[in-house]
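User: Structure with zinc ion, tokens only please.
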Amino acid sequence: MKIGNFYSPKFNRKKRSKNLIKIIIIHYTGMQSERESIIRLCNPKFKVSSHFLINQNGKVYRLVQDNRIAWHAGKSCWGKYKNLNKNSIGIELVNKGHRFGYTNFKKKQLLSLTKICKSLIKKYKIKKKNIIGHSDIAPLRKIDPGEKFPWKQLAKKNIGIWHDRRPSLLRKFRRIKLFTRQDKVKFVKNLNNIGYCVLVKKRFFFAKTVKAFQRHYRKELINGLPDKECLIIAENLSKKAIKNP
Ligand SMILES: [Zn+2]
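Assistant:
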């Protein structure tokens, strides 16, 4: 694959060692145009950068070398990791995002993403459960890459995890509330096992985390309310995550 270089001056000068790289974080650019995105990601005035940018034709730009820390994650948490810039590789997909006209990700774009992910997984032994979206690690602030991102399709290629419950069966449990405390506790525990850092005590925070989970794994209804379908999915994913794929 041909990769264009467009170096961003915005990264930590210190090199990081290879074994710090544990996570891949997928973003969308959320801007009007590709040009604007590149300018922003490479302009020191804005404190954002990522390792790769993939445009809608599948062209890949390398912005920061893997052995440097890029600034894409911000205040964030996933499993035992906090503020994930130092532990992650950031990949930006050109898409206008929810603010400017959210569109489906393009085939060629996803093909390039798949290639990059496969090579990173191999190089850094990244676990499937640690290939996630920006909203998963920062649910209070972020909603990218959003519900149009085809996580299920990618999981078939071993990029990220997906549940193996039948959609027709799951559908029956949608909107069925979790009534018992036991079920609620179970749901939170499953979220934790998957990697979500859940703050249960603050209702607003909790709802945002549930939304992030839904955006990723149950995009048909993103309402921040955990229902039986969410619980079944989370339980299934949790088992997979614990097995440590
Ligand atoms: Zn992002």
